[in-house]
Amino acid sequence: MLTLENIIEELQNYDGKPIKIMEVCGTHTASIFKNGIRSLISDKIKLISGPGCPVCVTTPSYIDRLAEISLMPDCCVLTFGDMMKVKGSEMSLTEAKAAGGDVRILYSPLMSIKIAQENPNKEFVFAAVGFETTAPIYAILMEEIEKNSIKNLRLLTSLKTIVPALSFVCEAEKNIDAFLCPGHVSVIIGADAYIELAERYRKPFVVAGFEGEHILSAVYEIVLQLEAGEHKMKNMYKNAVSEKGNLIAMEKVNKYFTCADDTWRGIGVIENSALRLRPEFIEYDAGSDIGLEDSGIQMPKGCSCADVILGRINPVECPLFGKTCTPLNAVGPCMVSSEGACGIWYKNRRM
Ligand code: SF4
């Protein structure tokens, strides 16, 4: 068995064909910086970010709908802070609030229960954004809404699922050789969710933890698989990720949500990539079926977020990076969110 030093030495000395590996989630991107992973591996192994930031792929129409609701009389939008600065086609939620809209930041969706109970004459809409990682908490929120017979709290959902997105990336970006699967999402959906992708696209899909040694070991596993002409799903994060995932959480999610087509900002429509409230719970939906006419592909002028999300470029290759686009004055969503690749690259570039 190789030690970490052996693995680093192997990766530093790698001199085979160039390899492009997509790390799908922002937590891996941040850890790659924190641990100086790029400095420990050969230049022939390129690490690029993927579409795993839910805020970054939320469409302008969705933000527009939230802003519109916040400005309606006796209505209030409840949201996580990450969503505040993302631009819609006209304004962000920060700007809607400045224009008189009622927008409140919460740290947990469950806080909205008490707020709705204490303000019976107001209509509340929770901005339910996320991947499979956060979907269970929205299912629990739905349980609480039902249990407490709350009638003035609904969800506007932009919940996305990662496997259809990875399938889209594999179809669209043939030069990506392998994937570091998102750790947190994998805890919920399980490692087996990637087996079919690995077989269909003949690429390694490796589930890894977030420590530097986890990422290095996963990159080494990918190099070994590619050198051997293999394409397997490998779960290297068994402490947290089981083969089948968190079945209790998925059961709760499936009770309230069902799959639907959805638009991803910067990507377009991906079939069966959304979780929407089931028809029997539609009274709790605040109009999430915004329609697919908004292709979501339009980005602010000069913004290369679509290329960043699809792994075509690294954030520093965007001409606006660190010039007109910074976290304080973000042009695109990838600079706004704590999980966005541009924001992570910017913060770490300044360290
Ligand atoms: Fe978009 Fe800004 Fe990133 Fe460029 S630097 S891709 S404008 S978020």
Automatic annotation (TrEMBL):
GO BP terms, alphabetized: protein maturation
Molecular functions per Gene Ontology: 4 iron, 4 sulfur cluster binding; carbon monoxide binding; iron ion binding
Lineage top rank: taxon: Bacteria
Keywords assigned by UniProt, alphabetized: Iron, Metal-binding
NCBIfam families in UniProt: hypD
Family designation: Belongs to the HypD family.
Protein name (record): Hydrogenase expression/formation protein HypD
